[in-house]
Amino acid sequence: MQELTHFIDGAMTKGTSGRFSDVFNPATGEVQAKLPIATKDEVDDVVASAAKAQVAWGNTNPQRRARVMMAMVGLMNRDMDKLAEALSREHGKTLPDAKGDLQRGLEVIEYCIGAPQMLKGEYTDGAGPGIDIFSMRQPVGVVAAIMPFNFPAMMPLWHVGPALVCGNSVVLKPSERDPSVPLMLAELFIEAGLPAGCFQVVNGDKDAVDALLDNETIGGVSFVGSTPIAQYIYARATANGKRAQCFGGAKNHMIVMPDADMDQAADALIGAGFGAAGERCMAISVAVPVGDETADRLVEALVPRIEKLRVAPYTDGDDVDYGPVVTAEAKKRILSLIDKGVEEGATLVVDNRDFSLQGYENGFFVGPHLFDHVTPDMEIYKQEIFGPVLATVRAKTYEDALKLAMDHEYGNGTAIFTRDGDTARDFAHRVNIGMVGINVPIPVPLAYHTFGGWKKSMFGDLNQHGPDSFKFYTRTKTVTSRWPSGIKEGGEFNFKAMD
Fold first, then answer.
1. 8-state DSSP, 43
2. I want to staple 92 with a disulfide (CB 3.0 to 4.6 A). Which of 26, 204, 322, 359 is the partner?
3. Which has the closest alpha carbon to 194: 310, 302, 67?
């Protein structure tokens, strides 16, 4: 049985609490590692160490900090296969999905190489008689990143990269379910030239989270997870005087107009709805065809595609469509919501509740499911299922479809499939959701834009990665200066003028 560690002051470090959490292999249901759970005192010690390391790092010029990111890109590419295998082993996602997870995080690290440009301030010459004004962006100090299980590489890198290159020290608390890749990334940062102590990884549960939120040295907190936890962390962090960006749940709608390419729309829904077993905040979990004829054609196109999906462990090869969900509890919750949908009157068109994989009967596998005739009052519509379940809600008109997306409490992402430019433009302009796809099913912006939802999908006013990350992880200082003139006419220096 492997015993994992924390990563403190540049080295893998055993915990001292005596408490451990089980890390499972989702494909077999077996415990594959023990993870130390930190106490409040351990967390406070880690934060204090990070604060000491931050002083010199924050005074390192941005170009040198960017060179660490440049080296990190090379190291991640070198170790891509090893990182992906470790990610798949703990999370359960396929190897191509795992590499995609790593790649999207790597792209943010690539973006961070441009930090010197992003950290430049402003200057006004002659704002008044002999007065100049300039601004500078300075690091917050020590920041905390509390990250989810579903993207154990991408999400930490989205936050750790910008925070570090801005001159902060980072204390990362990864998910207890799949902590190995964050620990491996911490080692790579040290190899890339990051000073020890600037990036700490401390494992823990709610006690560790609360210790980070209450620690006076922590200046900023980033979180990704469910909406109730996002609200809790945002409220507690800001009450303690910290800046916070907390990203919560989602219920992403994809509107399918009558003029859409139905094969293209169906293919998009298969990838967006069932990829990564539906365990992503940008998954499309609600298809909204406009008109019964459109709905009939869409469901007809989806059924054979869903029935061909191959569900298996990542070790079965790259042609696996998706693997298990992350825990037995997650599987139980997903199946209970499917039962609830049937009970409430939705039509379960594709029913895989009895799905079992020979040789992996104890694994956390959930077969793909398709509902039709779902209504907004049903739990499977209101809740984020976070599993391989696609709900079809039939809309009579475009306005009805738009209203469904706008009225839902979550506002992370949405999409529309249509051949009509006016309809697409109207949808993008009016919908009250943070990320919009037009014939693009998962509208996740690239690293040089920002990622973030609206409504109950986000708490805070700055998004993840892109330009917003440099604003979040720095504070603006504005300096107004005047130097009394000591030069007399003719060039003779007037010392009295300096008195």
1. H
2. 26
3. 67
Residue 386 has a CB neighbour count (10 Å cut-off) of 23
Closest CA to 254 of 85, 382, 424, 116: 424
CATH H-level superfamily of 252-438: Aldehyde Dehydrogenase; Chain A, domain 2 (3.40.309.10)
Whether the CB-CB separation of 346 and 385 falls below 8 Å is answered with: no
Q: Six-digit token pair at 232? A: 């809790």
Q: With contact defined as beta carbons under 8 Å apart, do 181 and 201 qualify?
A: no
Distances (CA, A) of 155 to 147, 201, 456, 494: 7, 14, 19, 60
Question: 112, 198, 246, 281: which one is catalytic?
Answer: 281
* pLDDT, tens digit only, all 499 positions of the chain: 799 999 999 999 999 999 999 999 999 999 999 999 999 999 999 999 999 999 999 999 999 999 999 999 999 999 999 999 999 999 999 999 999 999 999 999 999 999 999 999 999 999 999 899 999 999 999 999 999 999 999 999 999 999 999 999 999 999 999 999 999 999 999 999 999 999 999 999 999 999 999 999 999 999 999 999 999 999 999 999 999 999 999 999 999 999 999 999 999 999 999 999 999 999 999 999 999 999 999 999 999 999 999 999 999 988 999 999 999 999 999 999 999 999 999 999 999 999 999 999 999 999 999 999 999 999 999 999 999 999 999 999 999 999 999 999 999 999 999 999 999 999 999 999 999 999 999 999 999 999 999 999 999 999 999 999 999 999 999 999 999 875 555 555 454 544 4
* Level-2 CATH architecture, domain 2-248+457-480: 3-Layer(aba) Sandwich (3.40)
Gap between the Cα atoms of 60 and 321, Å rounded: 45
Give strand pairing partners of 347: 372
Residue pair 165/117 in contact (Cβ under 8 Å)? The answer is no
Nearest 5°: the CA angle 157, 159, 162 is: 95
Domain ranges of the chain: 2-248+457-480, 252-438
Q: Is 246 a catalytic residue?
A: no
Q: What is the DSSP string of 165-184?
A: HTT-EEEEE--SSS-HHHHH
HEC string for 215-273: CCCEEEEEEECCHHHHHHHHHHHHHCCCEEEEECCCCEEEEECCCCCHHHHHHHHHHHH
Starting at the earlier edge strand, list the strands of the sheet with 20-25. 2-3, 30-36, 20-25
Amino acid at 395: A
